[in-house]
C-alpha cells in the first residue's frame, strides 16, 4: 500500500496552498464581515481558480477539465478551505455540478456547458435539490416540470442554493410524473441564469460561510427547451443521490481544511502564550487536545482519500464517502471548538480567526446530507452487505 501522492497531485496541492495563502487568506475576514462588498474580489478569485483548472478538476480534458481525479479535488478543497471556507464551498459545488453534467449529460450538453464551467466563462454552477418541505427527504419535492410544446415549464421553489447569485447554470430537480411513487417520477434539468421565470431571492443571513452565496431559487412558469432535460426522464432522483455521494468528499475535505487551519493556529499559539510563568504548551490538558484532535484529523484525511480513491477506480464508494463526510465534519467541529478553547478569550474575539472558523465549520455536518443522514446511508449499506 502506497500513501504517497503522485507528482501531479503534489503539484496541484502546492498550487492550491499557494493560492489560498496569497489570494484567499488576505480577504477571508473581510469577506466574512461584508460578503456583498467583497463579492467582486471573491469572484475575481473564483475566476483565477478557473484558470488554474480548479473548477473542473475531475472533468475530462476534451471538455476543458483538468482531468486530475477525485483525490486532487479533495486536496484542492482542503487547501482552499484552510484560508477561506466560503470560497472552497463555491468551488466544491461548481465541481459537483460539472461532474453531474459529465456523468449524465448528452454529448451536446457536455460540449456546451463543461468548457464554460471549467474556464469560468460560466463562473459557477448551482445544485438545486432542497425545498422548504424537502431537505433530508428530497424525494418529497414539490417543484414540477410539465411538458409543453417544445420543452418544459417549471414551477416551484428551491431553498438555500449555494452559488445561486452568480451561477451561470443550475441543475434543477423537478417532478415530471406525479402519478409515480415518491422519488420515482423526478427528472433533472439544466437551467441557465437569466431564463425568464427563474427568480433568485435575497441573500440568506447565515451563521457562517458568509462569503458564499445562499439564496432561494423560484421558478414561476419558467420555460426551458426540450434539450434542457438531462439524463433519463423520471430517473433523476437516482442521479441526485449518486452525485451527492461525490459532493460529500468535497464537503468532508472542506471540513478537514478548516479544522487543520484552526488546530495549526492553536498549536502555534500554545507555544507563544505564557500563563503561570510557562508556555501553555507545557500543560498536559492542552497537549491532550492537540493529540486527540490531530489524530482525528489524520483519520478523517485517510477516510477521505480512501473514498476518493474508490471513486477514481470506478468502484462503489457511497458508504465510504458518507463515512468520510460524517467523520471529517464531526471531528472538524471538535477541532475548531478545541482550538478556540486553547486561545481562551482571544479565541472568541474577531481579531483572531478561530471564531470565524468555528462558525464556518458548523454547517459541514448539515449540508449535502446531515450527520444523521450519513449514518442512515452507512447503516443501510452495512445491512445490505448481509444480504
Ligand atoms: C448554507 C447552506 C447551503 C446549502 N446549499 C444547498 C445547495 O446548494 N443545494 C441544495 O439542494 N441544498 C442546499 N442546502 C440544503 C441542505 O442540504 C439541507 O439543509 C440539508 O440536507 C438538511 O435538510 P433540512 O435543513 O431541511 O433539515 P431536515 O431534513 O428538516 O432535518 C432536521 C433534523 O432532522 C434530522 N433528520 C431528518 N430526517 C431524519 C431521519 N430519517 N433520521 C434521523 N434524523 C433525521 C436531520 O438530520 C436534522 O438534524 C444548503 C443548506 C445550507 C444551510
From TrEMBL:
Tell me where in this chain the Acyl-CoA oxidase/dehydrogenase middle domain is found.
Answer: 126-222
Domain Acyl-CoA dehydrogenase/oxidase N-terminal, which positions? 6-121
Please state every residue range assigned to the domain named Acyl-CoA dehydrogenase/oxidase C-terminal. Answer: 234-383
**Family annotation (InterPro entries):** Acyl-CoA_DH_CS, Acyl-CoA_Oxase/DH_mid-dom, Acyl-CoA_Oxase/DH_mid-dom_sf, AcylCo_DH-like_C, AcylCo_DH/oxidase_C, AcylCoA_DH/ox_N, AcylCoA_DH/ox_N_sf, AcylCoA_DH/oxidase_NM_dom_sf
Please give the cofactor(s) recorded in the UniProt entry for this protein: FAD
Could you tell me which Pfam families the record lists for this protein?
Answer: Acyl-CoA_dh_1 (PF00441), Acyl-CoA_dh_M (PF02770), Acyl-CoA_dh_N (PF02771)
UniProt keywords, alphabetically = FAD, Flavoprotein, Oxidoreductase
Q: Which Gene3D superfamilies match?
A: Acyl-CoA dehydrogenase/oxidase, N-terminal domain (1.10.540.10), Butyryl-CoA Dehydrogenase, subunit A, domain 2 (2.40.110.10), Butyryl-CoA Dehydrogenase, subunit A, domain 3 (1.20.140.10)
- Family annotation (SUPFAM superfamilies): Acyl-CoA dehydrogenase C-terminal domain-like, Acyl-CoA dehydrogenase NM domain-like
Give the protein family. Belongs to the acyl-CoA dehydrogenase family.
Name it. Answer: Acyl-CoA dehydrogenase family protein
